[in-house]
Amino acid sequence: MNSSIIERLTSAGHLDRIFIDGEWVLPAGQARTSVIDPSTEEPVAEVALGSAQDVTAAVAAARRAFVTWSVSSPQSRASLLDRVHSLILERAELFAQAISLEMGAAIGMARSAQVPIAAEHIRVARDIAGSYPFLTHRGNTAIMREAIGVCCLITPWNWPLYQITAKVGPALAAGCTIVLKPSELSPLSALLFAELMRDAGVPTGVFNLVNGDGPEVGAAMAMHPDVDMISITGSTRAGILVAQAAAVTVKRVAQELGGKSPNVILPDADLARAVPAGVAAAFRNVGQSCSAPTRMIVPRERLADIERIACDAVSGIVVDDPRSPQTTHGPVANRAQFNRVQEMIGAGIAEGARLVCGGLGRPQGLERGLFVRPTIFSDVHPQMRIAQEEIFGPVLAVIPYDSVDEAVEIANGTVYGLGAHVQSQDLGAARAVAARIRSGQVHINNPAWDPHAPFGGYKRSGNGREYGVEGVQEYLETKAILGYMEEKQA
Ligand code: NAD
To answer: 89: CA distance to ligand 1 center in Å?
Structure first.
């Protein structure tokens, strides 16, 4: 199947092309990138990269298309999103295989999570497009919510399709036109997505794809004078660069950036439920999720029990070949991530945190590939690097506290504010702590994922919200038309 994805993209000519103005075209320059399978570190495909010149062509196409798409009926936009949604589900296996190949997700996880929840963003955007009040009235004034314009969307490699649909769905629902730049490390699923958009009948120029790197293609988007909005999901470092470059043309900037999310285990929590669920959430997608709860903040008197239960949970994790259905966790996605995880495990040891499971190097029996050991440190001090810096790998810091006030202070004690969890058998107590946490989402007792719940960051985790109604509103401008309503005669 893997080779068939490459064959499919090769025979269609898509590996050599980008998608602009409804056509697969050769980029202006000669740059290419190798897609590396992280489970072997072998290259599996060569993909053409665009340049600043291609960004200009794509933006011009999106600008032309904006004239009609922005005033299309919301129902017609909902119909397009409906076709996109159906096609993602129809091609789910292709996407799962591509994602597993390009970033190492275990195939079972790609099938059960990466692809279906990516489809959810499109379904939700479809429903909102069909029901959102784009025109309301306040007295004699009409309040019009209309598409902001041409949007450049920059996405990361960790949940490649999911991050694309979280932006493309709402932007289309709002009536915006799009130039997408996926991560240069995960271009295969994005090529399949562009193919799908064409098959779904997206009007010419409404959706464009320019593969490319951050410093050239991403920066060209951020600086471009004819782009109205740029939305980036990625590191805080890249988010800052984008905002700086975008400031000159006063475009709207939405940033979904890094995190170091806390999981506050309150003193009365049911440990047998809360701790395994906390480990699973921290290590989901091999810890490569921006909102992964990688700081477990625990009552000191229960520390020993929590360590034991957490290590038991780790023993159920199968780190192995991502193509095997038994594998729960594949490799990390790329060499930079592997080095980063090793560096941070080393930092935890050097700073004197107590290693309770995992550690440096690959898991036993895996001689090659970017596999890492799921690792838990305990007795972590809140100011240690492993408690402050985003690692983006399966490394959990267990931090003890002596009072609930201290737990809240630790939870809020990083530069980030993206996700958070609270565990308690007393809903009132959990709600009180949730209200004190400075982050865009708080999960009480591991609820099911909610695609309507707005998602985004406080502090250096970003600006703006994705998902649900708030996600669509990011792509809208507000126009007040005074005197719109007929004056009533006195
Ligand atoms: P990254 O910042 O290296 O890259 C993200 C995207 O930004 C890529 O498409 C990249 O090409 C682009 N980029 C890089 N430099 C740029 C520049 N100067 N100008 C314009 N674009 C640029 O991040 P990554 O390694 O792909 O992803 C991991 C990071 O993403 C983590 O920090 C993680 O927390 C964050 N993330 C955040 C969320 C969220 O919703 N908040 C979700 C997933 C990942």
So the answer is: 26
